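Hi W., the pyridoxal-5'-phosphate complex you wanted:
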Amino acid sequence: MTATVVRPTAQPELLALLGRTPVVRVTAELPYAHPGFWAKLEGLAAGGMKARAAVSMLLGARERGELRPGAPVVESTSGTLGLGLAFAGQALGHPVVLVGDSELEPSMRQLLRAHGVRLEIVDRPAPQGGWQAARLGRLRDLLAELPGAYWPDQYNNPDNTAGYASLAAELSAQLDHLDILVCSVGTGGHSAGVIGPLRRHWPGLRLIGVDATGSTIFGQPARPRLMRGLGSSIHPRNVAYDAFDEVHWIGPAEAVDSCRRLARGCFVSGGWSTGAVARVAAWAARVHPGAAVATVFPDGPHRYLGTVYDDDFLTAHGLDLTDAATRPVEIPHPRAAEARGWARCTRVADPLKGKR
Ligand SMILES: Cc1ncc(COP(=O)(O)O)c(C=O)c1O
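Structure:
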């Protein structure tokens, strides 16, 4: 059976809503008092942080002739890029077909469908490569079914990274100075995209990557993960390994504890990745007194009301916030020990170096 999708009318005026997000000074205790850090609130823009990447990838493909006017766009996503693509699809006039999985929150499914996305859900992880591999399998079937369909491939597409040039430009205009930038890493897109331009502006800038426990991006063994957004069970090519000065792995208890402290203490908050970067940014501000620290909050709290902010969810998943680590365990090398909670390593290397 050949699947069909309805082509939306392009609304290029939407592109004026891209980015231009505010920064706010965060001083809420996380869990200790700290001098404060800057947070870029990407959840406040239409289409969220990944609208920047989505618009960049579709415009790039249009320019190269890989995406014809009105042709469908097909992508695998755990949500945030899906919303960005829903935005970019409407702005540029492309139907959007997304492959999610059983763990995609019901509210996010509703939101994507409300924005006209056709959503396909895979219901079991692949034996090798987990949910991501299962989603990619379904995506390949869709590419074969839908004539002219284009797959942005966010994990490996350099236009994903390039889309964050605007984020870097905004940060360099909004902040007087920056010593340390803390970024969550999923596809590697936003950290790779901002660090080059920001280091041209502030040459001494240090970059701290924040990954999830159980993610294999920085060389730890891949395990089933509760947290979404940051972390991966594959090795995305977009990760700029050479750019990172250190990496932290954060567990779900630390992320939830931080999200809730943010929501209570300074109103702005978000989901797993926001909680994770906030904890590390507060730590960095505390251990480097006088340093200007900034981070990116990729989205807001709404998507996570049934997870991060739900006590029943925590109980069902055996999460006890009194277990949340208050400082990282140091490991000398990513393979030296498996991170079970907050861990830190100052040796960062591409685990696939020489194998790609
Ligand atoms: C909510 C959220 N936070 C953080 C990230 C990580 O960003 P990046 O893919 O640019 O590394 C993602 C990526 O999917 C995300 O969805």
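The chain has two domains: 14-45+159-345, 51-156.

W.
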